[in-house]
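Look at one such:
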Amino acid sequence: MADKLNAVKGMNDTLPPESARWEWLEATVRELMARYAYRNVRTPILEHTALFVRGIGEVTDIVEKEMYSFHDRSDKYGDNDHLTLRPENTAGIVRAAIEHNMLYDGGKRLWAIGPMFRREKPQRGRFRQFHQIDVEALGFAGPDVDAELILLASGLWKAIGLTDVRLEINSLGQPAERAQHRAQLIAHFDTHADQLDEDARRRLHSNPLRILDTKNPAMKAVVESAPKLIDFLGPKSLAHFEGLKAILDANDIAYTINPRLVRGLDYYNLSVFEFVTDRLGSQGTVCAGGRYDGLFEQLGGKPAPAVGWAIGVERVLELLKEQGTAVPVSTPDAFAVVPDAAAMPVALRTLQQLRDAGVRVQMHAATADGLGSFKSQFKKADSSGATYALIFGADELARGEVTVKALRDGSGAQTARPLAELPAWAATLQSPAPNN
């Protein structure tokens, strides 16, 4: 007997009924994106490794430690590509926008959903294959679109009933302003080098902004006393930040300014924001976003403003489950009870006609032991969640009818329906479809 094979650690199966929660969230996202006029984009899971080295940063943990990268097979000339399973989606979307000249006629509002891959220790809310919803607004420079993205995320929380998430915002200014801050930051941390952990010392000269984002409580005092970037911002950067705050205030979106909220790469600028929660331990960021006006040029394109955010699907679903949010589950409108195999041709023809009319129908199917008893079929009809049972008995079929029995209203009422008049009564079986 062959050894049993299991899924790769940190890469999980999603099975019914849990998959219904995913379908519901995805359907809610699709409907919300349509309301905001964001259009779907789909990029490859595999990209050239260089895209992420440039698009995420060579000195980040993702590129240094976490990417699934490999050399592809050589072609007939001996050439092979170095490829990576995407660890995030923004770089791929920007690559696609550059490659296909998507901004030739103006800005684009885009969204995507799909799996990402990072080789890190699996833990609550973090897996080696995980899923993200990405929203990117490309070609728009003003704080109005930054605010629109935050409003969109807030709209999603409202649509799915997610509570206990709070918004934190900050401004990174522009590269020249960050350069002045960076010099002061390095000087500050240099004078307190004995209080830095190993990770902070490693980042001191390569990526000092990320030290501000440390989760090490022993470094809290030295980080709190560090120079604040907002004190180095010029009039234009401050005006952009004030514009963002004004729109959030006008829409009653509560926020706090977090001067420790940073991004470590030079192409990030101006607005950054995160929706966070205290209910997922150290993995408290539910949505992370910000402006990255320098990324197009970094990836070989013409300079273009851009802003976006990403949401971890698993984290959102975990939060919803923890707060007890009920998610609509798709159940059939009707379940076919077929006592005799001789009735199968008529039953299946009738079920196909009902499905064509929009009715959700589950057919009872035979096992190796046959169709099973009338009683066992009714048990399955009840456990399916169907509103009605359709009984294809010999007497009914002899009269050209099917019996419709109510399963959910407590009455158990039975009604004979003529098969020849199916279009007239099919709609009476339909219940409102859940949002999935």
